[in-house]
Amino acid sequence: MNYERSAHVAASPERLYDVLSKAENLPHFVPQLTAVRELGGDRIEVEARYGGHTHKGEAWLRGDEARHRVEWGVDGTSYRGSFEVGPDGDGARLVLELTTEHEHDFEADVSGTLDAVRRLLESEV
Q: Model-level pTM greater than 0.85?
Protein backbone atom coordinates (compact mmCIF):
# COMPACT_ATOMS: atom_id res chain seq x y z
CA MET A 1 0.00 0.00 0.00
CA ASN A 2 1.24 3.47 -0.84
CA TYR A 3 0.31 6.68 0.93
CA GLU A 4 1.25 10.21 -0.04
CA ARG A 5 0.06 13.36 1.69
CA SER A 6 1.33 16.91 1.88
CA ALA A 7 0.92 19.88 4.18
CA HIS A 8 1.99 23.50 4.39
CA VAL A 9 4.22 24.26 7.38
CA ALA A 10 4.83 27.82 8.57
CA ALA A 11 8.61 27.39 8.82
CA SER A 12 11.49 27.77 6.39
CA PRO A 13 12.31 24.70 4.27
CA GLU A 14 15.81 24.68 5.80
CA ARG A 15 14.48 24.63 9.38
CA LEU A 16 11.91 21.95 8.54
CA TYR A 17 14.54 19.73 6.89
CA ASP A 18 16.90 20.25 9.85
CA VAL A 19 14.27 18.99 12.31
CA LEU A 20 13.14 16.06 10.16
CA SER A 21 16.66 14.82 9.43
CA LYS A 22 17.65 14.31 13.09
CA ALA A 23 16.80 10.83 14.38
CA GLU A 24 16.30 12.05 17.97
CA ASN A 25 13.39 14.23 16.82
CA LEU A 26 11.34 11.38 15.32
CA PRO A 27 9.40 10.47 18.50
CA HIS A 28 8.17 14.08 18.66
CA PHE A 29 6.13 13.71 15.48
CA VAL A 30 5.77 10.00 14.66
CA PRO A 31 3.03 8.96 17.09
CA GLN A 32 3.97 5.27 17.25
CA LEU A 33 7.66 5.85 18.08
CA THR A 34 8.51 5.90 21.76
CA ALA A 35 12.33 5.93 21.43
CA VAL A 36 15.06 6.20 18.80
CA ARG A 37 18.75 5.56 19.29
CA GLU A 38 21.46 6.21 16.71
CA LEU A 39 23.69 3.18 16.08
CA GLY A 40 26.17 4.79 13.73
CA GLY A 41 26.15 5.63 10.06
CA ASP A 42 22.57 5.60 8.84
CA ARG A 43 21.46 2.88 11.29
CA ILE A 44 18.97 3.53 14.09
CA GLU A 45 17.26 1.42 16.71
CA VAL A 46 13.59 2.19 17.19
CA GLU A 47 11.01 1.35 19.79
CA ALA A 48 7.41 1.66 18.70
CA ARG A 49 4.03 1.01 20.24
CA TYR A 50 1.26 -0.31 18.00
CA GLY A 51 -1.31 -3.05 18.16
CA GLY A 52 -1.18 -2.84 21.94
CA HIS A 53 2.43 -4.04 22.04
CA THR A 54 5.90 -2.50 22.16
CA HIS A 55 8.20 -3.50 19.30
CA LYS A 56 11.95 -2.91 18.92
CA GLY A 57 14.03 -3.16 15.80
CA GLU A 58 16.64 -1.65 13.53
CA ALA A 59 16.02 0.65 10.61
CA TRP A 60 17.92 3.09 8.43
CA LEU A 61 17.48 6.84 8.14
CA ARG A 62 19.18 8.86 5.40
CA GLY A 63 19.13 12.58 4.82
CA ASP A 64 19.93 14.35 1.56
CA GLU A 65 20.42 18.00 2.47
CA ALA A 66 20.83 19.14 -1.15
CA ARG A 67 17.39 17.73 -2.03
CA HIS A 68 15.85 18.44 1.42
CA ARG A 69 14.77 14.81 1.52
CA VAL A 70 14.82 12.29 4.37
CA GLU A 71 14.26 8.59 3.67
CA TRP A 72 13.86 5.64 6.03
CA GLY A 73 13.14 1.95 5.87
CA VAL A 74 13.60 -1.49 7.34
CA ASP A 75 15.92 -3.97 5.63
CA GLY A 76 14.28 -7.11 4.28
CA THR A 77 10.80 -5.55 4.10
CA SER A 78 8.87 -3.31 1.74
CA TYR A 79 8.40 -0.76 4.53
CA ARG A 80 9.93 2.58 3.57
CA GLY A 81 9.06 6.22 3.56
CA SER A 82 10.27 9.72 2.95
CA PHE A 83 9.82 13.35 3.84
CA GLU A 84 10.51 15.85 1.08
CA VAL A 85 10.61 19.57 1.83
CA GLY A 86 10.28 22.45 -0.60
CA PRO A 87 9.36 26.13 -0.57
CA ASP A 88 5.68 27.04 -0.39
CA GLY A 89 4.85 30.72 -0.23
CA ASP A 90 5.83 32.04 3.18
CA GLY A 91 6.73 28.58 4.51
CA ALA A 92 7.43 25.06 3.35
CA ARG A 93 5.57 22.22 1.65
CA LEU A 94 6.12 18.87 3.34
CA VAL A 95 5.37 15.72 1.36
CA LEU A 96 5.19 12.44 3.29
CA GLU A 97 5.30 9.17 1.36
CA LEU A 98 4.88 5.76 2.97
CA THR A 99 5.02 2.29 1.40
CA THR A 100 4.15 -0.82 3.36
CA GLU A 101 2.90 -4.34 2.77
CA HIS A 102 0.80 -4.27 5.93
CA GLU A 103 -2.96 -4.20 5.49
CA HIS A 104 -3.46 -1.72 8.32
CA ASP A 105 -5.05 1.55 7.17
CA PHE A 106 -2.23 4.06 7.70
CA GLU A 107 -4.30 7.07 6.65
CA ALA A 108 -4.74 8.32 10.23
CA ASP A 109 -1.07 7.64 11.04
CA VAL A 110 0.14 9.63 8.01
CA SER A 111 -2.22 12.52 8.74
CA GLY A 112 -1.26 12.45 12.44
CA THR A 113 2.44 12.64 11.59
CA LEU A 114 1.94 15.61 9.26
CA ASP A 115 -0.17 17.40 11.88
CA ALA A 116 2.44 16.74 14.58
CA VAL A 117 5.28 18.08 12.41
CA ARG A 118 3.25 21.18 11.60
CA ARG A 119 2.37 21.80 15.27
CA LEU A 120 5.97 21.22 16.42
CA LEU A 121 7.49 23.64 13.92
CA GLU A 122 4.75 26.26 14.07
CA SER A 123 4.97 26.40 17.88
CA GLU A 124 8.50 27.78 17.40
CA VAL A 125 7.37 30.62 15.11
A: yes
